[in-house]
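Reopening this ticket.

The earlier resolution said the output was attached, but the attachment link was broken on my side. Pasting everything inline this time so it's all in one place.
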Amino acid sequence: MNFISNIWKHPKTTAAGLLIAIVSVAGVLSQQGLSLGKAGTGTVVSLVSALATALLGLMAKDPQTASEGASAQGNTAKLGAWAMIALLLPLPWMQGCTAKGVAQDIVNWTPSLQSAVTTVDSTAALLAPADAPIFAAATAGFDAASNLLVAEAKAYLADPTAGALLQLQTMIVTLQQQVDSALLQAARIVNPSSQQHALAAIQGVGTIVSAILSLVQSISSKADVARMAADSGVKLAAVEPYLDQAFAAKIVAAHYGERVELARAQVAQAEEMQISAGF
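Inline output:
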């Protein structure tokens, strides 16, 4: 009976809880590839999730009168926190529910990837003479692997077949492994300034590779993801100590046009999902 009475005593809190549950379930359905039909250019699942999030945001911004006192202010703060939680649940690269939408998102990342690789190519000149050859050797494969990944991404967008997806899966894992191996090698550089420049340049590439990996993961079967993870000899957990999430969040926020705070939580969520999958 307390359960029933609490619903009547705290209708706003109850509604917030239901909306959060809707967003959570919609996120799971989206990640499993369940769309429940089309809604305009999107899907029913994405539409329901967006509406629930919007309603939760409106509730969090509902003005309070002065007579409601500190308790009302506390409730508003809680609703604001819940709204933020709901916004953090879906990753920006997991919301395009069609293979074509995801493929387009992957291709949209490729100019940033090529720019980041160009930055890597010019970083050796900023390092101490003894460190430049180490860095150059660690990142030697970036140009070729990134160019192949861009080509495979465009090929999959043009013709999203199982064979094209397999090639895309192979190339993203190949580049991911090169980046992670390079991070471990750069971490051994003793000169503090050289190490800082090297890690930042490599992570610029790594952040984009991680975003693309998450996109590829979202359109791959469980068996394919397991195979990709098995091909990842260097695991994300091994390089995580050398990653700067604030730096990664700025890259993601700039690409998707969102707040850095939101992007930072999404980056952390993506990393956790990849680790859970075995990467």
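Reporter confirms the inline version is readable. Residues 2-90 form one domain. The chain has a mean pLDDT of 80.
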